[in-house]
Amino acid sequence: MKPTINMRQVEAFRAVMLAGTVVGAAKLLNVTQPGVSRTLGLLELRLGYALFERRGRRLYPTAEAEALYREVEQIYIGIERIGQVAQDIRYQRAGALRVATMPALAQWLVPTAISRFLADRPNVTAFVQSLPSRQIAEQVSTRQFDVGVVELPLTRPAIQIEPLEPVPTVAVMHAAHPLAAQSSISLKDLHGERMVLLSQHSYVRYQIDDAFSRLGVSPNVVIETPSSSIATALVAAGAGITLVSRWTAEPFASPSLAVRDVRETLASRYAFIYPEGISPGSLARAFAAELLALTREPTDC
C-alpha cells in the first residue's frame, strides 16, 4: 500500500536535510526538538525505511533520503514560485489584461496608454481589440474582456459604467483651407462647406445636426461614414472638413492638417466599462489610470 504522509512530516524531513541536525531543524520550524524527532520517526515508520544514519548529534541522509529530498524540493520550488506570482499580481508585475476599444480611440489613445502601462510591467501581457461600442458592451458583460473603452450613451445589462470627462469636438481641415487661418471656428463658418460627417444613426451626428439646425447652417455633406477615424483620414486626403473629438484628431495632427477648436459647445462622451458583479482587477484599474493620465496631458492639436 502507498504510505500516508502529511505536509508536517515533509516539512520536518526537509528541515533536517537543510540543517543536518534535529536541533537545527527545530529552530528552522520554531518547534521543539522532541517534536521534530517524533515527526521524523513517524515518517520513517510510514515509509518503511530509514532516512538518516545517526552519528552523534548529526544525521546523515541515506540514498533513499537524497532521492526523496529531490522530489520534495520540487514542491517547495513550486510553492515559492506561487508566492512570487502572488506578489507580482499584487503589485501588478504579472498577469494578463484584455482590453476592447472603440475604433476612434484605437489609433492613438488606447495604444499609447497600453504601451505606457506595459513599460514597467515586463511580465504582464495584453490583448487589445477594436470593436463597436455596443459589441464591446456585450463582450464585457460576458467577461470576455476585463475593461472596455466605449462611447456614450450606452445601455447594456451586466456592465459597470464609469464615464470620462466630455471631450470637445474639433474641426479638422487642410492647413491650406481659408478657415485654417482662424484660431477657432464657429459652426456658422461651415455653411455651404464640403463636409465629411459621421453616419446619421450616431449620437454625435445627432448633436451636430441639431446644432446646425439651431444656427440655420446648411453644410454640403459629401461623405458619411460610421468611423470618425475614417472621416479624419478622408479629410487628410482632401475630401473636405470634418467634426470629430479631439482624441480622434490627435494622431492625424501634422503641418498639413489643421485642427481648430469649435466655439459652440459640442462634445463626445466616453466611458470605461467593466463586467458587473465583480470588482475591476488591479491591472484593469492601472490601465484606466494610465489612460486618464494621458488624456490630461497637453496635446499637439
* CATH third-tier fold name of the largest domain: D-Maltodextrin-Binding Protein, domain 2
Strand content: 15-25%
Tell me the structural class: alpha/beta
Text of the CATH class of the largest domain:
Alpha Beta
CA(first)-CA(last) distance: 77 Å
How many strand units? 14
Mean pLDDT: 89
Give the SSE order as H and E letters: HHHEEHEHEHEEEEEHEHEHEEEH
| Alpha-carbon Rg, integer | 32 Å
| Shape descriptor | rod-shaped
Low-confidence stretches: none
Describe this structure in words.
Strands 7, 8, 9, 10, 11, 12 and 13 form a seven-stranded mixed β-sheet that branches. A five-stranded mixed β-sheet has the order 4-3-5-14-6, sandwiched between helices. Strands 1-2 form a two-stranded antiparallel sheet. It starts with 6 loop residues before the first helix and ends in a 6-residue tail after the last helix. The mean pLDDT is about 90. It has three domains: about 5-90, Winged helix-like DNA-binding domain superfamily/Winged helix DNA-binding domain (Arc Repressor Mutant, subunit A, Orthogonal Bundle), CATH 1.10.10; about 95-165 and about 270-295, Periplasmic binding protein-like II (D-Maltodextrin-Binding Protein, domain 2, 3-Layer(aba) Sandwich); about 165-265, D-Maltodextrin-Binding Protein, domain 2. Strand 9 (about 195-200), helix 7 (about 205-215) and strand 10 form a beta-alpha-beta unit. The protein is α/β, with parallel strands linked by helices and about 300 residues long. Helix 5 (about 110-120) crosses helix 10. It has helices spanning about 5-20, 20-30, 35-45, 65-90, 110-120, 135-140, 205-215, 230-235, 245-250, 280-295, and strands at about 50-55, 60, 95-100, 125-130, 145-150, 160-165, 165-175, 185, 195-200, 220-225, 240-245, 255-260, 265-270, 270-275.
